[in-house]
Amino acid sequence: MERGWDPGEPLADVSPGMWIQERLWSWGPGSSRQGVAVGCIVPEGFEAYARVLHPAYREGDLAPIRWSAVAARTGATAHPLMQFHRIAKIPLHEYPSWGMLPSEGSLPAIEARRLVSILGGFTSRPDRCYLGIWEGFGVPELQAWRHRPRLFLPHRAYFLFPGPIDGVAALSFGTFQHPANLWWPQTRTWCVATDIDLYETYIAGSEACIQRVVEDSDLEAFRVKLEDRVDIDGDLINR
Fold first, then answer.
1. pLDDT of 161-181, one tens digit each?
2. Neighbours of 97 (CB within 10 A)
3. Measured in Å, how far apart are the chain's first and last C-alpha atoms?
4. By three-state DSSP, how is residue 121 classified?
């Protein structure tokens, strides 16, 4: 686990995040959109987008296993929009017999460190970022702030903190530590989101930034489009 970094009290003014609210696509009840798209997770208006997959873990030694390796094991097809339960050929929410599911709603430390290293080079002020943590984690440290302002996005709300990019993987609130679910620099040159119900993280950025992400050998990352679906029915190949 990363060494903890206490960001202090959440911001009373969440207006720095309103641009994300304005650029996200709607989803869920009342929306005409089928399923949930990338544009519902990270904001439109960027040159390119990427999907970083959280690894699964082998039983026993907890060695990370990439989704492409899972697909090779089961005979499924690895592709940019593959869904874990489809390639693992197990029912939704069930565990594979050989190990653990990918981290849901939490960017793993190795992937977090790599993204921080990459994205820090695509902003002039990596020391000035905004870090969001989902309001719904049932811990006393966050419940104590239930009356504080939050950044409201479609079906999600976040406490917002100013901080350096190095704090992303080490957000710590007393005994509770969790990587940021939502983070971007003051320069708005990129935006990263790890939705609480997904086994992956999405990045919006420049063409050069996203190219750097998908080329990194320490990440299992793919280019995606805003209209690509992130829900399980977005995998049209492994059915």
1. 999 999 999 999 999 999 999
2. 8
3. 36
4. helix
